Amino acid sequence: MIEHSRYVLPNGLTLLVSEDPNTSLVAMNLLYKVGARDEDPHRTGFAHLFEHLMFGGSRHIPDFDTPLQMAGGENNAFTNNDFTDYYITLPRENLETAFWLESDRMLEPAFSEEGLRVQKQVVIEEFKQRYLNQPYGDVWLLLRPLAYKVHPYRWPTIGMKVEHIEQATLEEVKDFFYHHYAPNNAILSLSGNIRPGEALQLTEKWFGDIPRRELASPEHPQEPLRRGKETLHVERDVPASMLYMAWLMDARYTPGFYAADLITDLLANGNSSRLYLRLVKERRLFSQVDAYVTGSLDPGLLVISATLLDGISMETAEEAILEELEELRKGQLNERELEKVKNRVASSWAFTHASILNKAMDLAYFELLDHAGAINREMERYRQVTTADIREKARELFTEGRLSILYYHARNER
Amino acid sequence: MNMMETTGNPHPDRTQAPPVRPVEEIGWKPPQEHLMPGGKICYYLPDTTMEAVRIDLLFPGGSWTEEKPLTAEAVIHTLREGTASRDAATIAEIFEYYGGYVVPFSHRDHTGLSLYTLRRHAPPLLELLEEIVREPRFPEREIHTWLQQEQQAFLIEREKVSFLAHAAFLETLYGPDHPYGRQRKEEDYRAVTPADLAQWHRQNLSCDRCHLIVAGSTDDELLSLLDRHFPPAAPTTSPSTLSFPAPPPTPGEQEIHIPKENTLQAAIVLGKRTINRDHPDFPALAFTVTLLGGYFGSRLMKNIREEKGYTYGISASLRPLREDAYLAIQTEAGSAYCGATMEEIIKEIERLRKDLPPGEEMMLVRNYMMGQLLQSLDGVLSRAEVVKRYLSAKRPFSLLERFAKEVRAMTAEKVRETARRYLDPGTLIRVVAGNCDS
């Protein structure tokens, strides 16, 4: 159980507090309900670029990081397709510094041409370092537009291309801020050595006077199922070929999500998982195999990826994976195997939530999904999945109308 | 849970930073010690609010004790691949059925296994953990599969400029035959045999030489389970007799370029061998290196990322090993900015050697480092990591408190003096991998 209190300020800011007297620290997480799916298709990568600009100082504070480091704190942020998340951990005595900093940049960041110019350049270097200058770095730049034709999940958070980042203007930056960054579009969560009453008082003091803002409500057109599978072949200078198969699946907070998530665990979580045992160890087709769900707010992807050993063809690889999925569709699954993946979920949950930062992050995340209290029912949702649910979910998902395949060929196969 | 609406407030004074109290105490508490039969100590860090527990087995033999490259890592990763009575699939299924995670780790100075489990499932998993450590079989087929997987992962790593630069840096620093300098080669993955693994296992993985570190939901019953499963065993053979070779003399200023075609960025590493944890100047050097490039607001980050935008990130750090230590500054910069980045790094080092850092910056670094220490000791899992680090390094835990004390007492003069003594640009090896304009 993650005990917590929940409050909503008149300006719409939601506050969640989970007290833990056994630590000398507090973690503060501030989630804004804006991500890459909210971007203009001609200005992709904007939410993430904006996250960088949030560190360039704010109306009353020239530099975000210095005062926080002075207070012995640490911070970072990330952007994904659905939301943007800022987090801080610091000694409890200095908690008010975090309130002062976060509330001032919610009020208004310091917008400047020079700041924008430099951060555009930093983000372009990030684009190169993580997506262009790494083996397989461009996989998601290719796979997303294959799997999504209409939904904004068709581009990654870094953006569709470098040019979109280069073209961003200061006017657009300001406009983006005032339509997405607002108390009524944010969730503040605290975990650690802090009493809920004190947290509320500090939140009212620092965030209470920030006005509500009128929010943009970008459309997220839902991705239709197709008649047949989508495929793409590319060739790159990489040491080994890879195969990516992705099926459109249930949105994160829907009843069908849990069976699909457990399917990926049955397939590839651990050395006793099906694909690992049969395709890596018995048949020696792959050096590595993985299966996971993207877990997005709108319908996401169930992904299976494999790195092929020398001499294994894409056809063999694809067929071998499909054969394993066929077993699930036929209902070849006993209680013990299902119990196994549920037990793994439970122990990994226990370790994850031993950290105050993870607790604060997850409270805000569940509030985004539905309401923070759902965090304490999450394990129950996994426990309720039956072998019949797995079979039905496999039959529903593993069809060609949901499937996209990326064949990533090594140029000079050895 | 409650939900309530609250009333608005007058404007707070945002022009004034709230008062800050510097961290004075890092909250270090040594782990508790449980004396096992035979005199070995099990270190434990209990947290009664947790339902999970992590048990680490730490063996002092790392890759430097290998005669053939890759042996230590291969042993620790393939213990699970079969024992006298169970095959790999059965072992994996039991660990996973009980929700356990077994995570092998290997390093130049140590190897080990971490078992993550819910406390209530610990008994069957400890029994199995004992079995794989005591009587692994290293089956030919499974070992071959593992080597093949790792070889491919290695080939992928070798495509990254950051990997190439770091490898060339260490090889230059310690020499290609030294255990800290020796770099993996593709053929290493074809040379190791199951017999090599069995031999290294006999010499190095005996439990009378391992450390046990337990963090989380612990109790007397768990400790007595550990006594039973990891009893003192008379070693069947003597430990590896390889002695640690003295590192070669510092090679001095050198520039090395590792070509790689079609790269958009170049990876840069600058560094040298330096003093270790127990040297009196170590805390001062750690402070100086942090000020230069050890945190987000550091001089290198401010100048090269936040002002110039040449890179997504740049860092400077100290890497103390058991027998030696080195410092490294590293970054990946756009090929067009690579030469300018190198120049700026040297400029920042020269500035440290010339001017005294302002008082505010001193306070900033001091508070930041104390905060980091506090954070690294928060929660039993983090504290156990620190315990493992000191055990692996064979250094007393008391060094940690000395470190904190010295950090609190640092002065601007001492930073400059330290930079002059330890950061002479003329002594730095400079490695660049990938396309660089200059």
Keywords:
heterodimer, A: 414 residues, alpha+beta, Cytochrome Bc1 Complex, Chain A, domain 1, 2 domains, 6-stranded mixed sheet, 5-stranded mixed sheet, B: 438 residues, 15 helices
What proportion of the residues of chain A is helical, as a percent range? 40-55%
Number of E-type strands of chain A: 11
Order of helices and strands of chain A: EEEHHEEHHHHHEHEEHHEEHHHHHE
The CATH H-level superfamily of the largest domain in chain A is: Metalloenzyme, LuxS/M16 peptidase-like
* Number of spatially distinct domains of chain A: 2
CATH class of the largest domain in chain A: Alpha Beta
Spans of chain A of at least 5 consecutive residues whose pLDDT stays below 50 are none
Count of discrete alpha- or pi-helical segments spanning 4 or more residues of chain A: 15
Oligomer: heterodimer
N-to-C SSE string of chain B, H for helix and E for strand: EEEHHEEHHHHHEHEEHHEEHHHHHE
Distance between the termini of chain B: 62 Å
Question: Looking across the biggest beta sheet of chain B, what order are the strands in?
Answer: 1-2-6-3-5-4
Q: Profile the largest sheet of chain A.
A: 6 strands, mixed
